[in-house]
Amino acid sequence: MKKLSSTTSPPFWRDKRVIPILLQVLFAVLVVLLAAFFFFNALGSLRQMGMSFGYDFLGKMASFDIGDKLIEFSSTDTYGRAFLVGILNTIKVAFIGIILATILGFIVGISRLSSNWLARTVATFYVEIFRNTPLLVQIFIWFYAVFLSFPTIEKSINTLGLFYFSNRGTVIPWFDLTTSSVIWLIFLLIGLFLSFIIWKVRIKQQVETGQRKYPSLWAFGSIVTWLIIPWFFTSQLPLQLSVPVIAGRGFEGGYTIGPGFGALLVALVMYTASYIAEIVRGGILAVSKGQVEAAKALGLKSPTILRLVILPQAIRIIIPPLTSQYLNLIKNSSLAAAVAYQELVGVGITVLSQTGKSVEVISIVILVYLSMSLFTSLLMNIFNKYTQLVER
């Protein structure tokens, strides 16, 4: 009689390696079926109301204008271009907001642990006030109580002849491109690439010899050298300063920050930074006190300890919750419709009211926010992997 082998594998429905995969496949199928059910149910409802489904409306004339825009747009352009303007406005708010909120959040979070009583108290009050006030309320306060309370353009507040504050918006000096901007950009990219190589080489030499090779200084010098070269070719700077001046009931030159955009940006930054501050504080407190004591025993100063010992270890703890705050900031930018700033949702509402294409407009908005969130998560996951400890 043939004996059964002790290595006989169990049936696939009992294999512990296969069961998790089967469950995930089953869950994915259920999600797809559920989405298909809702989709075809919506199509049936549209047919009953005598409406058709399709995205052909994106090629039709929009018949409305958008005040704040990064690219040219007029009422004679298409709905598709209107959506593009809204997407770019959303990206502008999210990009600037993430940078400013990160900087402010780190400053406040570190100040919360400061030995200075005044800095610690101010940071604590800031966190408690902005974190516990609804974001929409903060947007309204900044919009109605601050930006719209500025005087009219004829009586605008002038600071040093460079900055103008009025209820039409805040106008600041800005930079315009010149004919040599592309050449400067090419040399800048080459300089950044070479400076990175030089920095890596100097770091390697420093590790091998144990002598200080000043890698950062060499990298900076490489960039400066490569930026001197295009000057000899063009004799022109890559940017020229544009100073705003009042022209009638408007401004010429500079860059105008509209009341809606200003209120939204300030509120998002102040609100999100209060959460980032607590994340930073928690990450710093999670670093072992023995690390700090060892650094002090070596004679390192407090700023050096923070920069070289504490933050490199805390950043591994900070990144995952920090990613969530970035995603929240991107999605919270949809509240711009409350202050008439035409970003993606604001444009979508206008298009929906004119065309009645509710399913199509909502699907576009969902896909854009999903793409932005996934792209942000991808970048943060790459950065998170870069900061992880390398196991031997």
TrEMBL record:
Q: Where is the ABC transmembrane type-1 domain?
A: 87-380
* Membrane topology category: Multi-pass membrane protein
Record's keyword terms, sorted: Amino-acid transport, Cell membrane, Membrane, Transmembrane, Transmembrane helix, Transport
Q: Which InterPro entries match?
A: AA_ABC_transptr_permease_3TM, ArtM/GltK/GlnP/TcyL/YhdX-like, MetI-like, MetI-like_sf
Gene source species: Paenisporosarcina macmurdoensis
- Statement: the UniProt record of this protein carries the keyword Cell membrane: yes
Gene3D superfamilies membership: MetI-like (1.10.3720.10)
What name does the UniProt record give this protein?
A: Amino acid ABC transporter permease
**Subcellular location, principal:** membrane
Q: Which domain of life is it from?
A: Bacteria
Which residues does UniProt assign to the signal peptide?
none
Key word Membrane present: yes
Segments spanning the bilayer are 21-43, 93-114, 135-153, 182-202, 214-233, 253-277, 361-383
Subcellular compartments: Cell membrane
- NCBIfam families assigned: HEQRo_perm_3TM (TIGR01726)
- Record's family? Belongs to the binding-protein-dependent transport system permease family. HisMQ subfamily.
